[in-house]
Design goal:
There is one protein chain. The chain has 141 residues and is an alpha+beta fold. 24% of the residues lie in helices and 33% in strands. It has 4 helices and 9 strands. It has helices spanning 2-19, 23-27, 40-43, 107-113; strands spanning 36-37, 47-50, 59-63, 68-73, 77-84, 90-94, 114-120, 123-128, 134-137. A 9-stranded antiparallel beta sheet has the order 1-7-8-9-2-3-4-5-6. A hairpin with a 2-residue loop joins strand 7 and strand 8. The longest helix is centred in the first third of the chain and has 18 residues, at 2-19. The chain is globular, with a radius of gyration of 22 Å. Residues 1-31 have low confidence and may be disordered.
């Protein structure tokens, strides 16, 4: 009988760490914490700007709930479509654009080239098939 009790006690002790809340669990709310697949609600409802502040707010993208997006590279209007799967898989297209010389922040390229979208501490991170991801923010740095 003592072996049975010892086995039950050992199983209970090993299961306890999985049940505990850690401070990190309590601190992270919706849209906070580390990277996670983006949702349509994350993308829509405002403008996204380059995290490095390039073009001081003149370069931006806005994602609409109907699957369209529009924005600017700093002085040229851009637009296209986007789709987002539950796992963060992203598909974007870019349509026609005006051709005025300016900062030319490549929003259209970033959206067209992205294959995955994540949020990371409130930022939007677009991952291309190859190369470095692009970080976008809601507020200008």
């Amino acid at each position: 009988m003592s072996r049975t009790l010892l086995g039950v006690a050992l199983a209970a002790v090993l299961a306890l760490p999985g049940c505990a809340n850690t401070p990190a669990d309590d601190a992270a709310g919706p849209g906070e914490g580390g990277p996670r697949p983006a949702t349509a609600a994350d993308l829509t409802g405002g403008s996204w700007y380059p995290a490095d502040g390039t073009a001081q707010g003149r370069a931006f993208a806005e994602f609409a709930a109907d699957g369209s997006w529009n924005g600017s590279d700093g002085c040229n209007g851009q637009s296209g479509t986007w789709e987002l799967a539950d796992d963060g898989a992203f598909t974007g297209t870019t349509g026609m654009s005006t051709l005025i010389g300016c900062e030319n922040v490549p929003f259209g390229y970033w959206i067209d080239d992205a294959v995955r979208a994540e949020t990371d501490d409130g930022d939007l991170v677009l991952h291309p098939a190859a190369g470095e991801p692009v970080r976008l923010v809601r507020e200008l740095p």
